[in-house]
C-alpha cells in the first residue's frame, strides 16, 4: 500500500459515493481530497495552514465541489460551518443533511477531533479516520479492568459505535514515520440512541471524577456527589461490589450509577 492507496482505503471504508457531503480535516496538498472528489463527493475542507489552503483550493477550483476554510479544526465553529455548507448545496434528499467525515488527520489533534465531532450525530453520520495505531487501539479496543480503560472510552461509546478496521504499517508511508497507523470508523448515534442520563454534562463530570486518582474506589472519589454509604448502596443495588473501582464499570454501569446518585 502506498500513500495514495491509503487514501483509496479511507474512501472505500467510508463508502463515499456520488453526492455525499464530506468534511475533510487537514487536506495538505490534497491527495485525499482528490480521491474524495473522484468518488463524487462534495467536500468541505478545513486546513489551518494558509499556503496549503490556497494551494488545495486552487488545485481543485475547476471542480466547483470543494470549499476550503482556512481554520484550525480545534478552534473553529465546525457545526455552523458544516450547517451553512450543507445549506448552500440546496439538497433535496434529506439523507444528505448528514455529512461524513473522512480524514487523514495530523495525529496530534486526533483526540480533540474525536471529542469535537462524535457528539454531532444530528448532522454527521460517520467519522472515518486514519489514526496512530496506539490511539486507535486505546479508543476502540480498551477493555474493562485494564489500565488503558479511561473516560474517553466511555465518551466514545456514549456517542458512537466505533470499529477498528485495519492496521496500516509504517512501511506503507513515505516518508516513513516511527509509528504504525490504523483506520477506524465511528458510526455516530442520534440523540435518541444516547444512554438516558438527566444531563450529559453532569454524567461526564461524574465519569471524570471517578477516574481521577486511578486506584481510588468510587465510594471515595465520588464523595463530592453523595455520601460513601449512598454510593455503596447504589453499587450493591446494581450487583456490583461496594468496593468497585472505575475501571470495573461499563458504560451502562456508569449510566445506572449516575441515575442513582445524581439527583435531578
Ligand atoms: C497529516 S495531514 C495531511 C495529510 C493529507 N490529508 C494527505 O492525505 O496527504 C497534515 C495537514 O493537516 C494540517 N493541519 C494540522 N493541524 C491542523 C488543525 N488543527 N486544523 C486544520 N488543519 C490542520 C496541516 O497544515 C497539514 O496540511
Automatic annotation (TrEMBL):
Transferase found in the keyword field: yes
Residue intervals of the Ribosomal RNA adenine methylase transferase N-terminal domain: 6-190
InterPro entries referenced in this protein's UniProt entry, alphabetically: KsgA/Erm (IPR001737), rRNA_Ade_diMease-like_C (IPR023165), rRNA_Ade_Mease_Trfase_CS (IPR020596), rRNA_Ade_methylase_Trfase_N (IPR020598), rRNA_adenine_dimethylase (IPR011530), SAM-dependent_MTases_sf (IPR029063)
Listed PANTHER family: DIMETHYLADENOSINE TRANSFERASE (PTHR11727), RIBOSOMAL RNA SMALL SUBUNIT METHYLTRANSFERASE, CHLOROPLASTIC (PTHR11727:SF27)
Keyword S-adenosyl-L-methionine: yes
Keywords carried by this UniProt record: Methyltransferase, RNA-binding, rRNA processing, S-adenosyl-L-methionine, Transferase
Molecular function GO terms recorded: RNA binding; rRNA (adenine-N6,N6-)-dimethyltransferase activity
Top-level class of the enzyme under EC nomenclature: transferase
Listed SUPFAM superfamilies: S-adenosyl-L-methionine-dependent methyltransferases (SSF53335)
Entry EC no(s): 2.1.1.-
UniProt-recorded name of the protein: rRNA adenine N(6)-methyltransferase
Residues engaged in binding S-adenosyl-L-methionine: 1, 26, 47, 72, 104
Pfam families: RrnaAD (PF00398)
Assigned protein family: Belongs to the class I-like SAM-binding methyltransferase superfamily. rRNA adenine N(6)-methyltransferase family.
Domain of life: Eukaryota
Amino acid at each position: 500500500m502506498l500513500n495514495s492507496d491509503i487514501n483509496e482505503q479511507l474512501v472505500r471504508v467510508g463508502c463515499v459515493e456520488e453526492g455525499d457531503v464530506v468534511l475533510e480535516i487537514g487536506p495538505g496538498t490534497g491527495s485525499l481530497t482528490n480521491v474524495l472528489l473522484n468518488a463524487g463527493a462534495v467536500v468541505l475542507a478545513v486546513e489551518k495552514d494558509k499556503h496549503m489552503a490556497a494551494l488545495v483550493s486552487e488545485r481543485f477550483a475547476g471542480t466547483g465541489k470543494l470549499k476550503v476554510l482556512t481554520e484550525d479544526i480545534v478552534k473553529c465553529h465546525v457545526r455552523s460551518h458544516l450547517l451553512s455548507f450543507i445549506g448552500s448545496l440546496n439538497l433535496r434528499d434529506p439523507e444528505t443533511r448528514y455529512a461524513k467525515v473522512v480524514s487523514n488527520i495530523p495525529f496530534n489533534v486526533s483526540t480533540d477531533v474525536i471529542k469535537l465531532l462524535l457528539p454531532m450525530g444530528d448532522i454527521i453520520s460517520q467519522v472515518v479516520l486514519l489514526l496512530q495505531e496506539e490511539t486507535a487501539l486505546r479508543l476502540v479496543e480498551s477493555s474493562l479492568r485494564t489500565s488503558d480503560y479511561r473516560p474517553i472510552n466511555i465518551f466514545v461509546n456514549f456517542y458512537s459505535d466505533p470499529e477498528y478496521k485495519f492496521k496500516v504499517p509504517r512501511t506503507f508511508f513515505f516518508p516513513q514515520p516511527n509509528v504504525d497507523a490504523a483506520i477506524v470508523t465511528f458510526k455516530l448515534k442520534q440523540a435518541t440512541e444516547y444512554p438516558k442520563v438527566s444531563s450529559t454534562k453532569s454524567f461526564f463530570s461524574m465519569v471524570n471524577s471517578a477516574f481521577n486518582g486511578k486506584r481510588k474506589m468510587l465510594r471515595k472519589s465520588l464523595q463530592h456527589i453523595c455520601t460513601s454509604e449512598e454510593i455503596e448502596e447504589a453499587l450493591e443495588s446494581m450487583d456490583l461490589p461496594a468496593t468497585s473501582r472505575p475501571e470495573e464499570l461499563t458504560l451502562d454501569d456508569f449510566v445506572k450509577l449516575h441515575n442513582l446518585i445524581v439527583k435531578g
